[in-house]
Specification:
Length: 167
């Protein structure tokens, strides 16, 4: 029998659902942290995976992760694996020319990005014909470029928490 990483993650969820899977401290020393059990992380990943499929992203297509390390990064990677979408890491230090090259060369059809990178994404976007779905994490700074991006929290809220992905 074949398994992928999403199947292996789900098998851990099935036996350790209430155990802590992720502890994320946003800014050390501030006390701002987020904790998710395996079951909570599984549901969060399912929501993003379903959102992406509902948005027309198909198994085998490529999604860029232009994010800092954080809950949304892991959640999106797991959601991609569940939906059989290929996650592609994007270095957060890249500038417009590098982003344009990577977005095109990796055949990205979707991008999940931190709001801080809105202007860089907007500058590269006109040169990337295949990129058709954007999901933004956070709120862009006042005066940032206007992009047709779905808010991550909204995407997460709209997606089903159930597994239900094709084999």
């Amino acid at each position: 029998m074949e398994y992928n990483l999403a199947d292996l993650f789900e098998s851990v969820v099935d036996v350790a659902a209430d155990r802590e899977a992720l502890v994320y401290v946003d800014h050390p020393g501030t006390g701002a942290e987020r904790r998710l059990t395996y079951a909570e992380l599984d549901r969060a990943a399912n929501r993003i995976g379903h959102h992406l499929l509902d948005a027309g992203i198909r198994p085998g297509e490529h999604l860029g992760l232009h994010l800092y390390n954080g809950v949304e990064y892991l959640q999106t990677v797991l959601g991609c694996l569940k939906a059989r979408i290929v996650p592609v890491n994007v270095n957060y230090r890249y500038v417009e020319e590098e982003l344009l090259y990577l977005y095109r060369d990796a055949d990205l059809v979707a991008l999940v990005f931190d709001a801080e990178f809105t202007d860089r994404v907007a500058a590269a976007l006109p040169g990337v014909e295949k990129l058709r779905h954007l999901v933004r994490v956070g709120t862009p700074a006042p005066g940032s470029a206007a992009l047709p991006a779905v808010d991550f929290a909204g995407a997460e809220a709209a997606g089903s928490p159930e597994r239900g992905f094709p084999a």
